[in-house]
Specification:
Helix content: 25-40%
Number of helices: 4
Low-confidence stretches: none
Order of helices and strands: EHHEEEEEEHH
Number of strands: 7
Largest sheet: 7 strands, antiparallel
Structural class: alpha+beta
Strand content: 35-45%
Distance between the termini: 39 Å
Mean pLDDT: 87
Shape: globular
Radius of gyration: 15 Å
Strand order of the largest sheet: 1-7-6-5-4-3-2
């Protein structure tokens, strides 16, 4: 499988964590890659299955991208994809002490040219580090909420 994942137990209820993930305005706050700059569309709407939302991004150069929510189970799972076909997925599982959050970057649905480009640029390992930082930021954010 062409994917990288990371998991962490966060001492917060799933609904609080999911609320952050379903809010595009919060994505730049939690993004551990520092490439998500700001929402351009959908910033005032809670995500749902089929929702589209735009983001200002920067990986080497600035650009804009439109994402579409392709998996959605309230409080349990949310995933979105973009024109390249890669998928960002968050899965939440209630466990003792809080919620296990698993973030996955899955490029198994992309073409071979996209896959080759990702590998040449070192993105699988970069994404793994970004996932760990995102989970840290997410934990810090929801732990700070009352």
């Amino acid at each position: 499988m062409r994917a990288v994942s990371g998991s962490r137990v966060i001492a917060a209820p799933a609904h609080a964590i999911f609320g952050v993930l379903a809010d595009p305005a919060m994505h730049p706050v939690i993004d551990g890659t520092d490439s998500v700059l700001a929402p351009t569309t959908g910033k005032n709407a809670r995500l749902a299955l089929g929702s589209e939302f735009g983001m200002r991004m920067r990986i080497v150069v600035p650009y804009r991208i439109t994402n579409r929510v392709v998996e959605f189970e309230e409080g349990r799972r949310i995933a979105w994809t973009h024109i390249g076909g890669a998928r960002w997925r968050y899965e939440l599982e209630p466990v003792e002490g809080g919620t296990r959050v698993t973030e996955t970057y899955d490029w198994s649905t992309t073409g071979s040219v996209y896959d080759l480009g990702l590998r040449l640029l070192g993105f699988p390992s970069r994404n793994r580090a970004g996932i760990e930082r995102t989970l840290d930021r997410l934990a810090g954010l929801v732990a700070a909420e009352p």
